[in-house]
Amino acid sequence: MSISHLPAWRVVWATIRFRPGFWLLNFLSMMVLMLGLQVPGLVMRQFFNTLSGSAPAELGLWTLIAFLLVSEVIRISSILGLILTHVPFWVHSMTLLRRNLLKHILRRPGASALPDSPGEATSRFRGDVFEIPLFALWLNDLMGLILFSIIAIVIMVRISPVITMVAIVPFVAVGLISSAASRKVEHYRRESRKHTGIVTGFIGELFGAAQAIKVASAEGDVIAHFRTLNQKRRAVAIKDVLFNEFLHSIFRNTAAIGTGVILILAGRAMQQGTFTVGDFALFVFYLDFIGELTAFMGLLVARYRQIGVSVERMQRLMEGAAPEALIQPDPIFLSEEAVNGVPTTPALESLPLQSLLARNLSYTFPGATKGIRNISLNLRRGSFTVITGMNGSGKTTLLRVLLGLLSRDSGEILWNGERVDAPGDFFTPPRTAYTAQIPRLFSDTLENNILMGRPAEKEQLWNALHAAVMDSDIAAFEHGLDTLVGPKGVKLSGGQIQRTAAARMFVREPDLLVFDDLSSALDVQTERTLWDRVFEKEGNTCLVVSHRKAALRRADQIIVLKDGKVESQGTLEELLTSCSEFRKIWFGVDKEAPNIAGWSQQDTIGFAKLHG
Predict the structure, then answer these.
(1) Are 351 and 404 in contact (CB under 8 A)?
(2) Confidence at 518, pLDDT banded by 50, 70, 90
C-alpha cells in the first residue's frame, strides 16, 4: 500500500506559520541588512572615482566615512536581530516536529516494532528534523540576496547594460546546472542518511549487549563488523559531501568568471570614457553578492530535494498517522515551569474497576499462523487471576492484546460494562499498570526509574517500595534511591530489576495490576511476601502470567492456555483434577504426573501438596 507523503514545501510553510512572528522579524532583519550592504559599494565607487579623477567629487571624505559608519551600525543591528530571531524559531520548530514524531510513535501499539531500527529513528529525530527549520530561515537569506541583486543589477544596467548582461550569463548557466543536478543530490543524501542510521543503531545495540559480547569473547568480530558498517557509511558520506562541494565550487567560481569578463570588456569602455575605475570596483563588489546568490540558490535547490527525503523518512517513522500529523501545531513546553504545569495523570472518566470482561479476543502475528483465538476472561474487583501454559501457548500475547499493545483482530473488551474501543489509550495509569516479562530500566537513578517523571510524596514512594519487597535492598545500597542502576539496570540483580518495575506500578496506585511473569527471578520467600503485600491493600485486582506455585496457590481463577486457545479454566483444585495440561505445568514436564483415574479430589490435592 502506497503512503501519501506531504510535499516538502508544506512542511516548511507549516514551520513558518507555527512561529510567524520570529520568522517575519528575521525576514525584516535580513532585508535591512541587505539594504545596508548597498552603502559600502556605492561609497567605494565614489571614493575611487574621486581618487582617479574620473568624476568630480560630489561628497567629501568625512561624508563618505559617516555613511560607512551608519551602514556599519545598521549591519550590526540587523545581525543582532537575525540572531535573536534565528535561535527561537529554529528551536521551537524542531521541538514541534520532534514532539509530533514522538507523539505518534507512542500512539503505536506498544508491542509493535518501529518500521526501522532505533538508530534510524534517532537519525530522523536529529538530522532530518534539523534540516526543515533551517531551510525556512535560509529562505529569508535567499530573499535578502535577491533584493540586493535586483538593486545591484538595476544600478549596473544604468552604468553599462552590455557589460552587465555579459557578466551575468555565467550565473544563468550555473542555475541550469544546479537544477539538472538536484536529483543526484537527493540520491546521495538518501543513501547517506540510511547508512548513518545503520551505524547509529549498531552503536546503540553494541552498548546494550556489552556483557553478552564479553561472555562470548566476540569483541574482535564485533569491531570488524562495526568497521565494515562504518566504511560503507564513509563511502556514501564522501560521495554526498564531495558532490555538494563540487556544485558549490562551481557556484563560487562563477563570480571569478564574471570578474574576468568585466576586465576584458572594461578596458575599451574605460578608453572611451564610458566606464570608470569606481564603476569597475562597484561591479566586482556586486558580482561577489550575485555569485553568492547563485551559489545559495543552487544550495537551496539541493537542500529542498534533501528535505523531501527527510519528510519521507519522518512520515515512515509515523506509520499509520495522517500525513498532516507531522506538522500539527500543538503546544510545546520549553521551560521547566511550563513542563511542570502539564498534567501527568489523566483524570478517570470511568468509575473504578468493578469488572473487566474480554470476549473472543483473537490476534494473528503478521505473516504467521501463531497468535491467540477466541479467548474470553472475566475479572472481578479484588480478584487474583493467573494465566498459565507451556512456552509458546500465547500467554504474553493475550496480555498484550488485552492492553492494546497489539491491535486485536477481533473481540471486545468491557470495563464495568462499558465497551473499550481503544485499549492502548484506556489501559494506562491510573486505571492499569503493566510490567512486561523483561522490565525496561533506564541508565538513571533508582528513584527516577520508579517515578518516571511522576510527582509523588516520599511516603507514597516508600509504600510502593515496601509493597515490592524492595525496602531492605534500598537500605543496602550506598546511595539509596539515588543509586545509578546503569544501562538496562545492569547494576541490579534480576530480582531487583523485577521488583523495581513492580514499585513503578505500585506508586501509580492503579485499579488493575498486570504482571507478565514478574516473579521469575524471585526466590520463593520473596515472591510469597510480595503477593501478601499486594493484597494488604483492599481492592487490588491482579492479572498475572505465571507458572510459579506461589501464584497458582493464591489464584481465585486460573486460565490454562494451549496453542493460543483456552484449554481449561478454574481453581487450582479443579484444574489438578480435570486438566492434564495443567498437571504437566504443576508437576513439571520432565516429571511423571500421576494417573489420577479413580482418585478423589482430596487424594489429588493431597498428592499435589506433598509433591508441590
Answers:
(1) no
(2) confident
